[in-house]
Amino acid sequence: MPDVASQPAIDGWFATDESGQTHLIGAKCPQCSTYVFPPRANNCPNPACDGDVLEPVPLSRRGTVWSYTENRYPPPAPYPAPDPFEPFAIAAVELADEGLIVLGKVVDGTLAADLKVGMEMELTTMPLYTDDDGVERLVYAWKKVAA
């Protein structure tokens, strides 16, 4: 039974399999094999393709840093921000199998100075905030692959 105390901040963007491994849910055009994230059901993003059906697919759990930055300011209202605010890194990770670049938060404790282009990253989840009902809302995040 899923833990009701922890739920995705956005439904349908990631899932956890039976082994506890988290993967992103993307979509793939069956006509030209183009991938997209976040998932959607239609409108292939490839300008050379007229496909209008996208099928949901699990995406790679690993990739390499394509680019990164550090967020040093809390988001404006109405977005939740921890108090006190702590800077955090954001990485654009090129997925290993799809070649798709996915932007995401990097786990707490990792800042821009800890990252470099080409570094191997792995998908995980982390708490974003706790809502008014006491439910911890999770987001997907990137973490460095242990050496």
From TrEMBL:
Secretion signal, residue range per the UniProt entry: none
Record-annotated ChsH2 rubredoxin-like zinc ribbon domain positions: 23-55
Domain ChsH2 C-terminal OB-fold: 57-124
SUPFAM superfamilies in the record: Nucleic acid-binding proteins
PANTHER family: BLR3430 PROTEIN
Name of a matching Pfam family: zf-ChsH2
Organism, scientific name: Mycobacterium talmoniae
Protein name from the UniProt record: Benzoylsuccinyl-CoA thiolase
